[in-house]
From TrEMBL:
Gene3D superfamilies: Cupredoxins - blue copper proteins
Stretches with biased composition (Basic residues): 216-226
Protein keywords: Signal
Alphabetical list of InterPro entries matching this protein: Carb-bd-like_fold (IPR013784), Cupredoxin (IPR008972), MauL (IPR034242)
Region (Disordered): 203-226
Keyword Signal: yes
Signal sequence coordinates: 1-31
Protein name: Methylamine utilization protein
Length: 226
């Protein structure tokens, strides 16, 4: 936060300036940002949609590129969706006692981890922004979505369709939603100025073409694959 003191407006003794300054710095600062609420066309909260906030003023600092993991547990990807910054490495540990064959044919990242158990030898690097759909060659119902974003401010909507941005500096922003079920994969929720201390509520209803969550594994015994 920038604290500006204009010397010309201070008519008091200069000995008071340090006191005034500490008083200004101690004032609570309300956190500017966005409170997003997403619903599907049935009016239910839309979970696992990626909310992506970009600054329109200047290049932000490059986001950190942590190493994260997506497990395979009970023949499902856990978690089934994540947002990660460009450059992140993802490990895909197989926690099941059967083999999986994880792959993606998505434009933002094509890769394949042929049949394996346990921990793959190396992580998968995601150097390009976009939506990456992951699947298993053996278990058709296993689907996951990795939203690779090129901004430090991003996250997934919760079960109720809500996401709160971290505290942002005043400025101009574009807020986008990315979801594999949107016709173009993404849409703009909002574009404009955010004032210092302003919390902007963004409510939106989205037309999702496919189910918002990956299909679940069928009950044991229903399928031949193990
Ligand atoms: Cu599998």
């Amino acid at each position: 936060m920038a604290v500006k003191l204009h010397a010309g407006t201070l008519s008091c003794s200069t000995t008071l300036v340090p006191l005034l300054l500490s008083a200004v710095l101690a004032m609570p600062v309300s956190a500017a940002g966005f409170d997003v609420h997403l619903m599907d066309s049935a009016g239910d909260g839309l979970a696992n949609a990626a909310v992506v906030v970009r600054t329109l003023d200047a290049e932000p600092d490059r986001p950190d590129s942590p190493r994260v993991r997506i497990d395979q547990i009970d023949r499902a990807f856990v978690p089934a969706a994540i947002t990660i910054p460009v450059g992140t490495e993802v490990m895909f540990p197989n926690k099941d006692d059967i083999r999986h064959h994880v792959y993606s044919f998505s434009e933002a990242k094509t890769f394949e981890l042929p049949l394996y158990t346990g921990m793959p030898a190396r992580p998968v690097h995601f150097p390009q922004a976009g939506i990456v759909t992951i699947a298993c060659n053996i278990h058709d119902w296993m689907l996951g979505h990795i939203y690779v974003v090129d901004t430090p401010w991003h996250g997934l909507s919760d079960e109720g369709g809500r996401w709160e941005s971290p505290s942002l500096p005043a400025g101009r922003y574009r807020v986008e939603v990315w979801h594999h079920g949107l016709s173009d994969g993404r849409m703009t929720l909002h574009e404009g100025e955010l004032a210092a201390g302003e919390r902007l509520k963004l409510d939106s209803t989205l037309e999702i073409q496919s189910g918002p969550s990956p299909r679940r594994a069928p009950r044991p015994g229903r399928r031949g694959y193990r």
